[in-house]
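Deliverable D5.2: sample structural annotation.
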Amino acid sequence: MQINHKPVVTFLICIVTVFISFYVAYQISGSVLGKSRITELANFGGLTLEGIKSLEIWRLVSSQLIHVHQKHMIYNVLSILFLGIIIERAVGSKYTLIIWLFAGSIGTLFSTQFTPPPWNVGTGASQAAFGLAGFGLFLVFSKIQRGYIFLFAIAFALIPALYLDFKSVGYPKAGHSLSFVIGLGLAIYYIYSIKQKRVQVAPES
């Protein structure tokens, strides 16, 4: 696959996530590296089903920019950065933004259904990272995108996060799993679209 796109969206997502998450942490704890209570993050853009029912659609975006633990945020940002640079250079900014938005927001909203109130507030960028990993992994299996660096980026995003999932609940968390599947689905759609375009522009025999 030809690589000719600049990873503008990836850099923008990472920069905004760092600044917003640090800002919210400082507002809550008094330190940019401080821990935030999940219940407090609802007032800073955390995702709740009630908020969506009230048409607070902006929470689909804001929830991905805030975190309980800032160390976890840094790991998520690095995962998105490593994956996003390669994926965006390969498929462009539009698909990268779509993966981040849909896999991240839907996975985050889904995750809130497995936690009792008032702790059922969706936050964090890990769902988006799983979506990018799912998209990237399908590109590898389809032999569209290769390279040890790309495989390392996928492993970096998945292995530590899955380890923490199994350590805490004994299985991959629902939001992570759904986001990964969404990433796979978007990759299938992307590859199908590319093949359709090639068929349309192919000269008649």
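Annotation notes: Residues 174-201 form the longest helix (28 residues). The helical segments are 8-29, 49-53, 59-62, 70-91, 93-111, 126-141, 148-168, 174-201.
The annotation will be released with the project's public dataset once the embargo ends.
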